[in-house]
Request: fold
Amino acid sequence: MTLLFRRERGRLPAGTAYIAGRTIREGGVVVFPTETVYGMGADALNSAAVKRIFEIKGRPLDNPVIVHVCSRGQVEQLARDVPAMGRILMERFWPGPLTLVLRKGPAVPAPVTAGLDTVSVRMPDNRTALSLIRQARTPIAAPSANISGRPSITSFEEAVGELDGLVDVIIDGGSSRIGVESTVLDLTSGVPSILRPGGVTAEQLREIMPGLTIHPAAEGFTVYRGKAPSPGMKYRHYAPVHSRVLLFESQPGLEEAMIAKWRQISRSGRTAAFLVTDETEIHTGTVVRLGSRERPEEIARRLFSSLRQLDRSGVDYILAEGIGEEGIGLAVMNRLRRSAGKARGRSPAHRKESGSSP
Ligand code: TXA
Ligand code: MG
Reply:
């Protein structure tokens, strides 16, 4: 049985955080909102509870989870040491969508870090999440709430649709404000490196760390063949269940290329829908708009829910338009490439579309 805490006129029932916090303390699993995407949380210091998350999600055991804290003091419980840069970043970006990879302390059980000697921590910028952690009186280990491999969950309705009956509690937090996950930043290997682009942009981080690097796998091309510093890089991710995503990176003649593909699919007796920006002149068949290219934050906010909406509609193919990689655009492109299972092409000029062809 799953206990659902639904918002009425924008407010959660009294006692929500208290009851959900107690559930965490007793080893239960709680789906809760954050500013990025919904998380599936358990007591980070309880090995058995964390293992249940892996089972429910069907998550590979070698993929570590992020530990969510409500105070800097909790970080001291989890990390062996916090470098000076870590403190500066916490001051500037917490609470917020920045996850720091630090050297792990002895209190953190192995399933949380998938046996690595590092632990990733973040303080979410969401009142419900923060009061849940406070009431639980323990840091909360929480991957994104989706079943492993699927697009992340950014609304209460999606959470209930996917997880009712599988978890102990689901808390309504409305639509996620940012819509893509946090930026994962590794501070343990000399030069700070972005392992996953997210809500805090590379440009924002460079203001503080001019030497910042972006790990090559963070672009999101699949079949990353190097030794993955972040195990999550290795897996196909964000993929709709029914539809296949074909990604068209921005290029001259984009509209023609997308429409030609749509015709080809239609002729073969299958269905396709477009997932495009407001500026793109396509008015054929089903068209879902992500927002304006001028406002990539809006595109990020709608990305996962649009993929899920089209998937539910049962189309065979989603023809998705890529956007520029400035700002949060890099996070959007990482998710789109991975959802299309996109391998790196010969060169961007030759790369037209990826994913499997009809
Ligand atoms: O915004 C977010 O980060 C959301 C919300 C719920 O906080 N959480 C989230 O968790 O996206 P998840 O599990 O879907 O993604 C965590 C990513 C994975 O790619 C994982 O491999 C990486 O962070 N990660 C976690 N711990 C790590 C570590 N110690 N070293 C390197 N990468 C790590
Ligand atoms: Mg995830």
User: Anything to note?
Assistant: The mean pLDDT is 93. The domain at 3-83+103-179 is CATH 3.90.870.10 (DHBP synthase). Residues 143-144, 152 surround magnesium ion (ligand 2) (CB under 6 Å). The chain has eleven helices and 17 strands.
